Structure formats: C-alpha cells, structure tokens
Amino acid sequence: MCLGIPGRIVEVRRDAGLPMGVVDFGGVRRDACLAYVADEVDVGDYVIVHVGFALSKVDEEEAHRTLDILRQMGELEELA
Amino acid sequence: MSSLASGPVCPVPSGQHDRVQLGHGSGGKMSAQLLREHFLPRFGNPWLDRLGDGAVVPVEGAEIAISTDSFVVSPLEFPGGNIGHLAVHGTLNDLAMMGATPRWLSVGFVLEEGLPFDLLDRVLDAMAEATAAAGVSVVTGDTKVVDRGKADGMFVNTTGVGMLHDGFRPDPRGARPGDAVLVSGPLGRHGMAIMAVREGFAFESEIVSDTADLSPLVASLRKELGSRVHALRDATRGGAASALNEIAAASGVGVELDEAAIPVPGAVQAACEMLGLDPLYVANEGVLVAFVAPEAASRAVELLGSHPAGTGATVVGAVVAEHPGMVVLRTGLGASRVVDMLPGDQLPRIC
Amino acid sequence: MKYLAEYRDPKLARALVERIRRTATRRWTLMEVCGGQTHTIVKQGINDVLSEQVEMIHGPGCPVCVTPLEQIDRALHLASRPDVLFTSFGDMLRVPGSDCDLLRVKARGGDVRAVYSPLDALELARRNPDKEVVFFAVGFETTAPANAMAVWRARELGVKNFSVLVSHVTVPPAMVAILEAPDNRVQAFLAAGHVCAVMGWTEYEPLAERYRVPIVITGFEPMDILEGIWMAVRQLEEGRHDVENQYVRAVRREGNQAAQDLMERVFHVVDRGWRGIGVIPSSGLGLRPEFSGYDAEVRFSLGFIRADEPAACRAGDVLRGRIKPSECAAFGTACTPESPLGAPMVSSEGACAAYHNFARVGRGAQRGA
Questions:
Q1: Looking at chain C, which residue has its C-alpha nearest residue A75?
Q2: CA dihedral of B172, B177, B178, B182, whole degrees rounded to 10
Q3: What are B280-314's pLDDT values in tens digits?
Q4: Do A1 and C197 touch (CB under 8 A)?
Q5: pLDDT, tens digit, 9 for 90 and up, residues C236-266
Q6: B192 to chain A: nearest residue by CA?
C-alpha cells in the first residue's frame, strides 16, 4: 500500500506506446511506468514510484515549504 | 483443510518442515534450526559444537585452524566479482576470524554440464589472483560434473588450513561488557550487488560487491592489539545483524548499537528503500564485526582503516551486561528496538 | 536520497515530539491505517516516545495480512500446477494458507518467483510462452493502478498466457467498519498517504463529517508521521474534525485521475473478505467481466473453497485494533515469524511481526526462540 519512494526522472521513452522512463533513486536507477503522470512530468522532475509505477509528481515547492516550516518549528522548540 | 478436490495437500502443517527450503540457507534462525536438528545430533563433538567460523585442532603441540565453506551464488558473475572471488575470500576470512593466518586451500568443484569454458576460466582466474595476493596455495582439489540442470552453473567448496598464533584467539564467546563493537566497512554492498542482477528485481546502480580478503586486517589487529581483540566474525549471509546476534548469544552479553553510526553507502540505502529491505540484514563479503577492549577501540579503527578493505571502519556500538543475548538499536528519536535474527531470508516488500 | 532523507532528521523529529507533548492536554487514541506507517512507528519507537500523549492503534492497512485465506489457498493451488509460473510480490511468499505457504510449494517443485512490479510478471509471460504466468494481484488502491495496467497491457499486446489472481481491498469501507464497531475507540485517523496519492481525499470528507473524526493524510517518514500526529492532536484539542493533508508533496485532493480512470475501466467494486475480519461489503476490487480472460479464477475454474484459520490466531482482533499483538496468548510462543499462525506475523508490515521484530527492551521483550 505504501512502499513508494521519490526518484528523479532521467530518461523518458515509449515502449510500444506505453510511456516509460528511467528513474534515479539516489544513485540506483530503474525503469518505471510513467503512464499515470505522463502529462505533467519530464526529465528532471521527481516522482513517487510504487512497484514500478510513478503515481504522483513530487511537488517540490510544497516539499521545501514543509521542510522550512518544520525547521522553524525545530528552532522554536530549541528556544522554548 | 482446503476442500479443493485437486488442490495440493501439504502433509505437514505450517511451522514444521518436511523439505529443505531456501530459508534454511539464509544464515538466520532456520539455518540454526537445520544445524541443531539434523547435523549436530549426528556429528557433535567439542570442535563442531562450538559453531565457530572454523575449528582449532591440536597437531603435535601446535594448533592449526581448519574451515570450510561452499559457494552456490547465482548468478556466477555479478558487479564486483564472481563466485571464484567469494570462494577464496570466504574461507580466508573464516580462518582469519579465528585468528589464524591462512596458508593452504583445497578446492572442490561441482560443474554443470554445458558450463562455458570461458566462464570457468574467469572464475579460476579470480581464484588464482585472490590466492596469490593472499600468499595462499591451492594444494589439492577435486572436480565433478553433473547433468544439466543439477548445479546452477557450478558449486564450489573451499576448505582452508591456517596457522594460529600464541595469545591470539578471538572467540564468539569472548565479548565482554564494555567492549567496543566495530564494523570494518559500509554494509550491504554484496547482497544488493547480487539483487541488482536478479531477475524480477534488476536495477542499475554503481553498487559492487565488497568481496575481499580480510586476513591482512586481522593480522594488523593481532600484531598491535593481541588479546584485546575479543571476538571477530565476518558479516556474510544474514548481514551484520546475524553476526552480532551470534556473538551476543555465544558470549551471553547484550549489544547496543547507535543507528546513526551504522555506515551504509547511499546507493545501498536507496536500493534497500526501493525494495523494502533493511541493510542490517543484507549480506556482505568483505566486512567483519569486531569486539575489542574499550581502550583499544580507536586504534583498532585506525588499523582497520589503513587497509583498502577497511575503508570506512567505525565504532557502531558497545557491549553491555543488560539483556544478554540481545542486540538493541537506539534510534534517532532516542527509543530502542531489538534487532533480532530473521527466521529466513529477508523478502522484498510492497508495503 | 532527496525528498526522503530530509524527513528523517532526528533533530527535527525530536522537536516535533516536543511540540506534540506541549499540544496534548490529555491522551488521545489515533489509528494509522497503513502498514508502512505501522512499520515506521514501531521501528522508530514513535509510540514509545509519545506514549503519554497518544495511543496508536494499528489499523488493517497491510494488504498482505488481510488477503483472505481462500485467496491464499487458491494461490497455493495454482502455484502447484506444473504448467503455471506463479509470480507474486515478495512479502506474500511466507503468508500461511490453510496448510502451506508459497515458499513451501516452491520447495516441493512449484515454479514460484517474486517480482518487484506486475510489469515484470507480464514480461515473464512474454518470455515464457509455454508457461501459464499468473500474478497474485494484491494490495490497496495504491497498487491497483499498477495491476490494472498489467492487465490492460496484456490485452493490448495480445499476451495469451498471462492472468491475475485478484485480491484488492479499499480503505474507506474498512475505516467505516472500524468506526461502526460498538467498541471503537479511535478518535482520529492518519490516512494512508500513497492510497490518497491515487484516490485523493474526497471519499474521506463525508466520513470525517458523519463520524466527527479528524482524518489527516500522512506520509511514511518519521517526520511525516510525527507531523501527522501533531495535526491530528491539534484538531482534537481544538474540537475540529476535518480532513487535512500532511503529505502535501505527494497528495492532492483530486488524486491521480489517470490512475483512477484505468482502475475504473479494468476493475469494479465487489464485496471482499478481509482475513481475520470477515466480509466488508463493497470493500474490494475485482476484474470486470470483459477482462475475465485475464482472471485466473475464471481461467483455472477455481470454484468455492472453504478455508479455516487456526483457532488460536487473533489476527482479526489485532487488525481491528481491539488488542495489541502482545496481548494475544499465542504471541511469541505458538506464533512467531518462523512459524506464524496468521498473516500479521508474516508480513513485515503486519502489526504482530512489527511488535515481534521491533520489540522494546523496556517492556520486558522476549527474544524469539
């Protein structure tokens, strides 16, 4: 249900019409099917991949915002 | 019972085994059960019962070390090496873990009909190179050929004999509260290098097997630290977790690990994330765990690190008197959890 | 690893723990639905460090654990056939059926292979035209799009020797079943982040409203779980019951439309049995009739089978959060990872296995035999 990890698209192609790509997970690369995100992603984008399928494009802005909020929270906690 | 008329009828309920399963070779609890229930009752003797990496036998006043290992890896060739490297390094390392300097090897081959000669030659080249580099001689051997389909390409057995040194007897029962727990390098490289070329799971990466002769590392520890090295084990199948559990159990001590200190290369971590595997349980072929007296810990790290095969050596934890036989890991949040042996092989997961 | 490692920062995690401790004025009872979240919580000790602020009840979010016994037995039957190459996700291999499991069938000569992706199984079918390749299509809504695509592609490419044994389950009916139970103690949910990446969260809005429970869509890293818990606790303290999204980097309200579309074309909603719980109406997905050529149950005429669980197994109570695994009489004794009585002890996401493997020292944890 769960094991989806983020990776960066480094290659896109079509296999007999099916959008596929090579995704880089921190130095490990694997094919992933991009059919479910094909309209919104390109090389360089990050996607969440589960059992060889990209299910969602990582919203990098939101990701950074979350981290910033958490880091601010961390600093406040240190002062508290 | 299933009432499916033509379905399989497993004569033995879950929990008991009527046939050998892959898990029996995993280095985890099923392996231990296999030894306990089938082999030890038949062969038990003071040497075997210790279940060390090898045996120390008296030879007219001296003591020599003997160890044997069989190699069945598939595929025969993988990033970073082939079965020949494993066959030599594996037995050299077992002898080294007992404190011995390896001297002689025997090699037995079971070759599958149809094995290409150029593959065999690559394996033999690897073995020749590895034995020469270690100053070890292959003094006897045997070869059999079996029908196509019976040997996965080839199976190799190596048996090694080494000379022991006075005052240096690292022993799985030798760990003491206060000891520092070290690993000689980053974890998980061999197992993930194999997984990268395994059908159904293949992926591209720069991960290469860490297969290496660890005997020079042990020699360095012996020459300078001697009996302050209490226990050694190479962290092969079952990973570092299994090796640590075996020593903790044999010595009757607890082990506490610091999660942040455990070295795992980025690519190994990434591959483990993808497949849902824990690097602590992934096989290595060039990493040892060492239990040393606390005052010797930092020098031990330096000595290990002075060898290429010891790059990345570091302290990962300590021995305690509490929870004897148990390995416990302290997480980033400050909580603790037990790192137990697995029953069989670790399985990739989807959840 | 980018967008992963940053969410494991121990310093930030400890700050979040402090924040939760200061926000909670009493102890609250939360349920995380997804097995992957259970794994992180137990592995990192999150339930221990927050034990005074929250009780985490582990939900039935482990598809391996809830796959009905009859489907496992069907899988074992197929895997034993000499003409079948049976493929499956790795974590299904040790799940016990009525008498057996897939690894034992493999030991007896069955061609059983673990794969990472359903497309790998389809590829095996193309490369082994003389074998019947069956793929064990289990999972929640996260995995359904992948399994749907495998069937869709098989038809597109004209692959004749491929079929799937389907056992999909969906989350919202399970949450309703939990909320409707008379002894329900769950006050807020951490919803499954990747299920929602596919389905969005529109299905959860009526649930939050009707049952007055906060539902926070949460990711899987330690900081995601902690932030999700904090958001749920904050809602409870403020008396709100909204659907909130913690996992903003991966989940949007409408989810993944393309995935939902293909799921809709290949699957339809069916009643589904949940192992240990029983049948939950309209809680599963099955292949639509026009794809029956790819349905292993049809292709191999797998009819009705009756399957019985070992009496001592209390998986149902564990999966519903009624008891903790350690409260089951068989836990650690008759039931261990080496000889499991039920599925939650086998799957590494199962609550029983998580409790056993990640046992706490302080709680007088017993080492397995």
A1: C15
A2: 30
A3: 999 999 999 999 999 999 999 999 999 999 999 99
A4: no
A5: 999 999 999 999 999 999 999 999 999 999 9
A6: A28
Q: HEC profile for chain B?
A: CCCCCCCCCCCCCCCCCCCCCHHHHCCCHHHHHHHHHHHHHHHCCHHHHCCCCCEEEEECCEEEEEEEEEECCCCCEECCEEHHHHHHHHHHHHHHHCCCEEEEEEEEEEEECCCCHHHHHHHHHHHHHHHHHHCCEEEEEEEEEECCCCCCCEEEEEEEEEECCCCCCCCCCCCCCCCEEEECCCCCHHHHHHHCCCCCCCCEECCCCCCCCCHHHHHHHHHHHHHHEEEEEECCCCHHHHHHHHHHHHHCCEEEEEHHHCCCCHHHHHHHHHHCCCHHHCCCCCCEEEEECHHHHHHHHHHHHCCHHHCCCEEEEEEECCCCCCEEEECCCCCEEECCCCCCCCCCCCC
Q: Give contacts of A36 with chain C, Cβ < 8 Å.
A: 145, 256, 258-259, 262
Under a CB-based contact definition with an 8 Å cutoff, are residues C1 and A25 in contact?
A: yes
**Band (C361; pLDDT cuts 50, 70, 90):** low
Say if the Cβ atoms of A2 and B206 lie within 8 Å.
no
Number of residues assigned to chain B: 351
Question: Please, which chains are in contact with A (at least 3 CB pairs closer than 8 A)?
Answer: B, C
Per CB-CB distance under 8 Å, the chain B contacts of C108 are: 8, 19
